[in-house]
Amino acid sequence: MSIVAKTFTPRNLQLITEQCLKKRYFSLASSANQRMSEIEQKFKLPKTYEGSQPSVWVEYIQLALDHKPLNLGQGFPDYPPPKYVTDALIEVASNRNLHQYTRGFGHPRLVQALAKLYSQLIGRTINPQKEILTTLGAYEALYAAITGHVDAGDEVIIIEPFFDCYEPMVRYARGVPRFIALKPKLTEGKRLSSGDFVLDKAELEGLFNKKTKAIILNTPNNPLGKVFTLEELTFIADLCKKHNVLCISDEVYEWLVYKPYQHIRIATLPGMWERTITIGSAGKTFSVTGWKLGWAYGPANLMFNLQMIHQNSVYTGNTPIQEATAIAFEKELTRLDSSECYFNSISTELEPKREFMGKFLQETGFKPIIPEGGYFMMADWTPLKSQVDLDSETDKYADYRFTKWMTKKVGLQGIPPSAFYGEEHKKLGENFVRYCFIKEDKNLQAAADILQKWKSGKN
Ligand SMILES: Cc1ncc(COP(=O)(O)O)c(C=O)c1O
């Protein structure tokens, strides 16, 4: 006791206590750190998904929430869908028998309606049970088509600019994306159209080889709005046939085509039905993107592969949305050739919006690319470069810096198109911004006013 009393003076005791606490703290902290790093090591993304980053949508939705700009970035209407479509959902909601699981590969009433529609459009009888799969948005149909066909090392040709999920989906299947960019033809002085962006035929031909499993086509294209011509589709089809390649045709904007252009389904070209999976979306067809209902159709042997992926990941889609969509299709099936049919009236309704956007972008100093289809417009923003403080943002690509600066300082949001290119070709998208014009006239006018004010230096 006396030794303790002599050695451990109050000051010593304090120091020893502090040391012990520190030691204890550090040992607790270091074992906590070790545990954390063990957890991080063991539970990081599996190798197949390594390198995945939040997509442009995740980042830009947050940007819009943080800065509350006028949002012409994301592709959805800011006005209500057709009344008969929402009425169908109300009717379904009050039916007590439509709130339980439905058939996994597609709600019977919906696959019947889809078979009836596409049999007419494709010119062959489509089997609703074996040749159609309904999915959670076209997104899941793409996932099932890619995962259901692509093996490790298989090459998949992707035409740029492309809807951004194609690339990670191919990589998740351990496939190898091979990119080819649509490039503008020289059109001095003329207003650019999405049709001026073309494939280099020799370059495309050069990509096809023994390892090529599939090509992903998107017509009308997002973000460019290009509607592929019969000549272009025939060239692609001939290569698919020559090299025994699958065509995954994303046609979610099939009804959004402006006169005089025409949507051609590649599955209708000779010898293409047996090697094509065509994908559609209720979100785009009936302007109900929140319903997240899509479908794929094609020959039974190819569809079986998609059905297996769907069965073992999602199993079944939701019943009321599928029933309401079936009712909406049944209505349109009775008036397909009339101008009242929504499939015909939607592009008539959108055409003046497209014209208005082209005009106000041009007047502000952008160089818009007028789309032949879809509801997006890409525009070259670089003539306005001197009015933008690109250095205030840190992103690698200038279109990200431009769109972020515009969101924060000018209050108008667009999407950076370099997101729609593979890493090697991102530079091709850097000079552009993508705006969406399926918006109320008053909001398009507000966008025009914002840009006018910015141009005159008043904001
Ligand atoms: C080209 C393209 N494909 C697929 C999709 C996904 O459609 P959905 O919302 O039905 O999943 C979109 C959505 O914007 C798209 O633009």
Automatic annotation (TrEMBL):
One of its GO terms (cellular component) is mitochondrion. Homodimer. This is Aminotransferase class I/classII large domain-containing protein. Residues 69-449 form the Aminotransferase class I/classII large domain. InterPro entries: Aminotransferase_I/II_large (IPR004839), Kynurenine-oxoglutarate_AT (IPR051326), PyrdxlP-dep_Trfase (IPR015424), PyrdxlP-dep_Trfase_major (IPR015421), PyrdxlP-dep_Trfase_small (IPR015422). Coiled coil: none annotated. It comes from the Eukaryota. It comes from Ceutorhynchus assimilis. Belongs to the class-I pyridoxal-phosphate-dependent aminotransferase family. GO terms for molecular function: cysteine-S-conjugate beta-lyase activity; kynurenine-oxoglutarate transaminase activity; pyridoxal phosphate binding. It catalyses: an S-substituted L-cysteine + H2O = a thiol + pyruvate + NH4(+). Its cofactor is pyridoxal 5'-phosphate. Keywords: Acetylation, Aminotransferase, Lyase, Pyridoxal phosphate, Transferase. GO terms for biological process: kynurenine metabolic process. Pathway: Amino-acid degradation; L-kynurenine degradation; kynurenate from L-kynurenine: step 1/2. The keyword Cytoplasm does not apply.
